[in-house]
Design goal:
Elements lengths: L4 H35 L2 H28 L6 H8 L1 H11 L5 E3 L2 E4 L2 E6 L4 E4 L2 E3 L4 H13 L6 H19 L7 E2 H8 L5 H4 L2 H14 L9 E3 L13 E4 L5 E4 L1 E5 L3
Antiparallel strand pairs: 1-2, 2-3, 3-4, 4-5, 6-10, 7-10, 8-9
Helix pairs in contact: 1-2, 4-5, 6-9
């Protein structure tokens, strides 16, 4: 049976605590020997030296135990992160009252988006890459993120959407206020090399969710934004799904800006 990351971290933490305790005892005996030597107490010196030698043997054993406790051999951590980590993280989070959902190889614990980087032995929480992989520790971070007000420049994002929308809508000239597929908008947003990796589809969907949930609903020039859904959205290509705080999956397909509302 594969040892979980949580158990491996717990066992190693416990072994390290025992090592620290032995090291503290060794330091205590060393100070006592120092005092005996300072005073010239021969009996205390001999007793202290004997006890110090025994404490050193104990410390060596504790160090050996701590070094041997971590169960994963070279490459084992990478394999675990690929095959088992997401399941364990979701299980530990659920036991602590945190729901984590998986969409398009991303883990969503609203409002956070988590990505696993097995080769780097790291995870990404939104835009930040960290090496704190212990599931219970990561769960605490994600829970704390839920207590914070998301930082999102909704007005600037809305104006950017409108600017790109007009580049498509105005040259067409056929429909005054057409519904534009968000896939085309996203393509423009991520047209620079590598930018789709920096701002992936799940993050784009989250931005849309923040905007729709919290506003604003109108651009500075007065155009009202809406997000029409395509018929049979589940089977339509080019949709952008996100999971809200209640676990509901919200899908985005199109965008429309209207005047006179």
């Amino acid at each position: 049976m594969t040892t979980s990351f949580e158990q491996a971290c717990h066992d190693t933490e416990t072994a390290a605590a025992s090592t620290l305790k032995s090291a503290t005892e060794l330091a205590k005996l060393a100070r006592a020997l120092q005092k005996a030597a300072k005073e010239g107490n021969i009996g205390a010196i001999k007793r202290g030296a004997s006890r110090l030698d025994g404490a050193l043997d104990t410390l060596r054993q504790e160090v050996a135990n701590a070094v041997a406790t971590w169960p994963f051999e070279d490459g084992g951590e990478t394999e675990y992160l690929k095959e088992h980590y997401a399941v364990e993280l979701r299980s530990v989070a659920e036991k602590n009252g945190l729901a984590i959902y998986e969409r398009d190889d991303r883990l969503i614990a609203y409002p956070s988006i988590v990505r696993i980087f097995p080769g780097d032995h790291a995870i990404g929480i939104d835009k930040k890459k960290v090496s704190t992989l212990r599931p219970s520790y990561l769960t605490e971070i994600l829970v704390n993120n839920q207590k914070k007000q998301p930082r999102f420049g909704s007005e600037a994002f809305l104006e950017s959407l409108y600017k790109v929308y007009r580049q498509f809508a105005e040259p067409a000239g056929l429909l005054k206020e057409p519904v534009m597929p968000l896939a085309r908008i996203y393509e423009i947003f991520t047209s620079l090399p590598g930018s789709s990796r920096e701002y992936d589809k799940t993050e784009f969907a989250r931005s849309l969710y923040f905007l729709e949930s919290n506003g604003p609903t109108h651009t500075k020039s007065g155009a009202r934004v809406s997000f029409p859904a395509a018929a049979g959205t589940r089977s339509v290509r080019g949709i952008f799904p996100f999971v809200g705080p209640d676990g509901q999956v919200i899908t985005y397909y199109g965008i429309q800006f209207s005047r006179g509302e």
